[in-house]
């Protein structure tokens, strides 16, 4: 049955959750604390790029509204979905201040039946929220954890056709309510206690990150032994016990989730006195990938001092405008520190970016960035990069040196064009 839902947070997760719940027939009021963001949404503008999201919001305007005011969002809400961000603090712990501020605002919500947390939180947070709800006179309001497993760039599809829906709770009514909100989605529903649901989210991300670092380590060994990681990755992925996803070698993972969640899990482990060896190693291998990329380039060019480097791809992966924890940012900073000038290109990255990007030059066309460059780094797997006229690019560059950080191009073809071509884990 259609419900009235307040979604707290109009970021990637909140907006996708709100739009998809509206698409499923529910009435959704989204509350965000940023006036500019709310105004734009009220005016029909979608402030983030996510394939299919703007269209979905547009076709559900009757069931979707946006407000700055928590009381307005909660006036008729039966469910409060917490989708605010939980950025890392200096210690690596997740900053839960936004979650707590939503929980504080729930007092006096007349129709509220359940609070559902989608934000990624440390294990044990749900238990603390339950206690605070009880202390606030909200004992009658149910609590559930409903972590998200949506990847940016395909978040709408991941929400509507997920591999599974995880619901953590101890209150059967709240669990049923959350399950019913997803009516129309065909996926297994995994019901568990709150702590296990919170851990499932962190463990799923840790498993994916570890796989990427694993294949990156194999790539390093391939480079030393003359093997080709692309062939190895494909062949091991055909083993159904291993599977083919997240075995793409490259300059490593970034984004709004993996770096933050790996630090949060590390911190969680350390708070319990446990030393997470595999997780630490996965993080270390990920950092090493960027250092190795710069090292490889330095060896090819002699020195980076005074060179012009074209950095193609700035976002942490294609199909998103998200720059959070992008491997490119680390590369840009290292290149600048080594005395190189950095000219960058990206089809979706925002124009206004903080350090180190303000010290780089931005070019609307990849070929412009390549004109006169001493080397090029492919840092994001944008499909456009496969289609670039590399023959022309070769002629434009001062020195045709390429580090393909995403193994996008064919080594033999690039060498035939005259490039000094290096990639990750390929001979
Ligand atoms: C991830 C999880 O996939 C998602 O389930 C979770 O909810 C949030 O975190 P996201 O951060 O959007 O999603 O991106 P994802 O597509 O998983 O890629 C993460 C990073 O890993 C990117 O930087 C990507 O380039 C890198 N990656 C991914 C690889 O280097 N190799 C791979 O094989 C896959």
Automatic annotation (TrEMBL):
Residue stretches making up the UDP-glucose/GDP-mannose dehydrogenase C-terminal domain: 310-411
Enzymatic reactions: UDP-alpha-D-glucose + 2 NAD(+) + H2O = UDP-alpha-D-glucuronate + 2 NADH + 3 H(+)
PROSITE patterns assigned to the protein according to its UniProt record, in alphabetical order: PROKAR_LIPOPROTEIN
Binding site for substrate: 149-152, 201, 246-250, 254, 317
GO BP terms, alphabetized: polysaccharide biosynthetic process; UDP-glucuronate biosynthetic process
Pfam families: UDPG_MGDP_dh, UDPG_MGDP_dh_C, UDPG_MGDP_dh_N
Organism domain of life: Bacteria
Pathway: Nucleotide-sugar biosynthesis; UDP-alpha-D-glucuronate biosynthesis; UDP-alpha-D-glucuronate from UDP-alpha-D-glucose: step 1/1
Enzyme Commission number(s): 1.1.1.22
Gene3D superfamilies in UniProt: Cytochrome c1, transmembrane anchor, C-terminal, NAD(P)-binding Rossmann-like Domain
Molecular functions per Gene Ontology: NAD binding; UDP-glucose 6-dehydrogenase activity
Sites where the protein binds NAD(+): 32, 37, 86, 120, 152, 260, 324
InterPro entries: 6-PGluconate_DH-like_C_sf, NAD(P)-bd_dom_sf, UDP-Glc/GDP-Man, UDP-Glc/GDP-Man_DH_C, UDP-Glc/GDP-Man_DH_C_sf, UDP-Glc/GDP-Man_DH_dimer, UDP-Glc/GDP-Man_DH_N, UDPglc_DH_bac
Keyword terms of this UniProt record: NAD, Oxidoreductase
Keyword RNA-binding annotated: no
Catalytic residues in the record: 257
Oxidoreductase among keywords: yes
Protein family (similarity comment): Belongs to the UDP-glucose/GDP-mannose dehydrogenase family.
PANTHER family: UDP-GLUCOSE 6-DEHYDROGENASE TUAD
The name this protein goes by in its record: UDP-glucose 6-dehydrogenase
